[in-house]
Amino acid sequence: MSSPGDVAEERDTARRVIEGMPQHPALQGRVQFETIDWHSSGVPMSATMSPQEAVNRGIYAPAECDVVVFILWSRMGTPLPDDYRRPDGQRYMSGTEWEYDNAYTASPQPKLLVYRKTIQPTIDISDPDPEERVQQYQKVKQFFRRFRSGDGTLVGGYETFDTPADFESKLRDALVAISRTQIAEVEAVRRAPSKVVPGRGRRDGRGVFINYSHADEYWLERLKIHLRPLERDAEMEYWDDTKLRPGALWREEIQTALARARVAVLLVSADLLASDFIAYDELPPLLAAASTEGLVILPVVVSACRFTRTPTLSRFQSVNNPEQPLNSFSRAEAEAMLVKVTDSVDEAMGRE
């Protein structure tokens, strides 16, 4: 939740609505919510640290959340240090604008809910800095111009409200609708049968070798989180190149990890297919082990690429439909698909 200091009442209302969502009759027992915002995060603020830096160090970034709620009225918020720049080189107007762009450009993109209070703000004649108040309001108006094209047509959506009660009703309805959609998406993914194609024979190891491009580290980290319960129960141990030690003989370590693996998960993308190192050094021993030693290969297509036109890989059944890569899913669908990947690993390990 992103909200400057002039909407404290609405922020409290939003927090109350979010915390009450798990008890909603349509959602009870099916969803969990956690409110993320720096006002209630408990992140320590030093005198030399910007609020945005404190957020970055202590809590999830907007891009890492499932839903991001923006509440605006007459202020855009605290200006950021000069080193926070937009891709075009311009400075961000505030942390609120940085948070919006961080969420808007994320892949997968969280659901964005933007609310604008329409009551006309006033300036007290005793205000110590009336010009700053006016500048802040102009920044809010500038921010909302991004939702319209040059000819005035809407290119993005936001909700307006007059009272906290109006805001509360609109936010609750939106969160219920998003939750219902995500529940349906997750259940559809879970109902789809998993497909594990065993190799010849069966390896006796309990290792899982993860092959990926460094451009896809986000998906590597999410997969490792899903695999963690299996690792904790000593049912498997995964390996990826982040476990290479400084100064290690990397080729020997990779060969050792391959020898211990019963399953190899390939996070397939255009970046992986473009890597000469992966093509010439990592994939050949994986493919050989699949053909002669029973290593199970589980491709997971994370972004659009020529997987289906790469015969050495496409002969293995991908866990997800290659036409529906992970980054095309909503966050809920992507997480549900990673559950399927974990289930497929579990099955390939011979536990199901």
CA-based shape: elongated
Q: Number of domains in the coordinates?
A: 2
Number of helices: 11
Identify the strand order in the major beta sheet: 5-4-6-7
Could you please describe the fold and organization of this structure?
With 352 residues, the protein is of the alpha/beta class. The chain folds into 2 domains: 5-189, no CATH class; 196-348, Rossmann fold. Helix content is 41%, strand content 11%. The protein is built from 11 helices and 7 strands. The protein has helices at residues 8-20, 51-58, 95-104, 130-144, 164-191, 217-232, 250-260, 270-274, 276-292, 311-314, 331-348, and strands at 67-72, 111-117, 159-161, 207-211, 237-239, 261-268, 296-301. The strands form 2 sheets. Strands 5-4-6-7 form a 4-stranded parallel sheet, with helices on both faces. Helix 6 (217-232) links the parallel strand 4 and strand 5 (237-239). Helix 1 packs parallel to helix 5, helix 5 runs parallel beside helix 11 (331-348) and helix 6 (217-232) crosses helix 11 (331-348). The longest helix is centred in the middle third of the chain and has 28 residues, at 164-191. It is elongated, with a radius of gyration of 24 Å. The protein starts with 7 loop residues before the first helix and ends with a helix.
